[in-house]
Structure formats: structure tokens, C-alpha cells
From TrEMBL:
The lineage of its organism: Bacteria, Pseudomonadati, Pseudomonadota, Alphaproteobacteria, Holosporales. NCBIfam families: PRK05461.1 (NF003967). It comes from Candidatus Finniella inopinata. This is Protein ApaG. One of its GO terms (biological process) is error-free translesion synthesis. Residues 5-129 form the ApaG domain. InterPro entries: ApaG_domain, ApaG_sf, Uncharacterised_ApaG.
Amino acid sequence: MQSYSHTRHSVRITVNPVYLENQSIPEDNQFLWAYHVRIENLSAENLLLRKRYWKIIDALGRVQEVWGDGVVGEQPNLQPGESFEYTSGTPLPTSSGIMAGFYVMEKKDGERVEIEIPVFSLDSPHEVISVH
């Protein structure tokens, strides 16, 4: 399993995507992935996860953008040294794609910072790879 990690503003984001073979229907162009995210507060400040933004791009270059409050129905409040983990998923009409995005975190003083989520690849065993 491929792991993707990025640290910004003393927050480490690690993402592990997994292709869900048993829930995908390739003959109907339905491909499903789960992704597990770990958010680690490496700073000396309390951080509240307010919003998320995802940009999902399928193999044909079609873009879907998703904005929302918190993650999986929560707005975790991370004290220094704490972490939060969750699993979510995304469907695609193609056998591969990429995801990227950011979280909007709020400091105790009300300042908001964007924490980049590392770009990660969504690859299924149904992806046809050609060498040029």
C-alpha cells in the first residue's frame, strides 16, 4: 500500500488510499477507493479542523471539487501532540485518478491556516499502462 505524507505549519497529513475491488464494477465503469487519513498536530498550538477541500481528477481529466465542514461529520480539536484519523472514500468512472486538497485549521486566536493534503494517486489493477 502506497503512503503519501506532507507537513505544513507543523501539521503532518498522511494518506493511504486503497482500491476496493469487491465494491467496484469495472464493466460498468464504477471504481471505488477508500482513503485513510492521519492528521498529526506537531505544533505547540491547539488546532481546530474547520473545513476541507478536495479536488478529484479522473483519468480523462474531469475535475470534481468538494468543499465541506470538518471531516466525516466531525471538526476535530487537536491539542499539541495529538492526532486524528479517519477513513472515507470516493468513486470514479475511470480506473485511475488523483486527489489533492487542503484542510482549513483554526488556531486558538482565530487565525485560519490552510494545511495542504499531499497529492495521491488512485490506481486500480484495471488501469491499462502503456509505455511510450
